[in-house]
Amino acid sequence: MNTFAPDDLVLISPRYLAGAGMNKINDVIGPLVHLFAWPYDHDPRTGLLDIDSPCGSVFLDFDPGRQNGVWWTIAHHEPYWQIEFSRQTPSEAIASVTQALPQLLGDRRHADRIPLATESIAHLAKTSGWEASSTAPGRAWASPDGHCTVEHSTVPIHPWRIEHSVYDGLDTHWTATFTPEVPERLVAQFFTHIATSTPVERVFRDVPYFVQNLDDALITPVHRAAVNPHVHHAGAQLRRAVPRR
């Protein structure tokens, strides 16, 4: 049973269980605006945010008012492709995609600070312990705890789909979908930041309620750790893994 206060800062892994992390949303948009000078419009009343690439070929919008739960959309004009993320998608994984967009368009400023995924999703899944399976339309990979799945299919609308839920949803459900022309590098970029064992930081109240005491989630303190919080978390991961071998 976790005994954290609502305002406590914690580290949580696996990342796909962490929820969106509302205090991390600026990491998604900040680099585009401050490092690459992408123009933007923001409506403080609705929270709606629109960002366009300087060349006008890519646009990103954040709309927390959408009824379908899709808060983030990234689209490219020609060739047309689109990525959508629903509300509880971890911000760090979304940020890994948005921060890669300038390099995709040929702007390599700050490339040394924004590494791009170089491995295939199949290889990333295998090395991260995700279980592969064959499906009627293609291939699928499931996280070790079964909560997160990646599907690659011949379905023409969304050949790549990543989905997560605990207890059939209940504020833990999120999806990431990619249309056919999306560069696979961006899919791999997203998956790399979902599958890594490195924890993410959250305010405890922002961790989905049904994850807060979930056995599959490892949650450790940031401020009460006797050593570096990430070292403390890594030690807890190791202690948890030993009995399973």
Question: How would you describe this structure to a colleague?
Answer:
This protein has 245 residues and is of the alpha+beta class. It has one domain (9-244). The chain has 6 helices and 13 strands. The strands form 2 sheets. The chain has a 10-stranded antiparallel β-sheet with strand order 2-3-4-5-6-11-10-9-8-7. Strands 12-1-13 form a 3-stranded antiparallel β-sheet, covered by helices on one side. A hairpin with a 6-residue loop joins strand 2 and strand 3. Helix 2 runs antiparallel to helix 5. It is globular. The mean pLDDT is 92.
Secondary structure elements and their pairing?
Elements: E1 9-13, H1 25-35, E2 40-42, E3 49-52, E4 58-62, E5 70-76, E6 81-86, H2 91-98, H3 101-104, H4 121-127, E7 131-135, E8 138-142, E9 148-153, E10 160-166, E11 169-178, H5 184-195, E12 200-203, E13 218-221, H6 229-241
Antiparallel strand pairs: 1-12, 1-13, 2-3, 3-4, 4-5, 5-6, 6-11, 7-8, 8-9, 9-10, 10-11
Helix pairs in contact: 1-2, 2-5
Protein name: DUF317 domain-containing protein
Organism: Streptomyces alfalfae
Domain DUF317: 53-101, 143-200
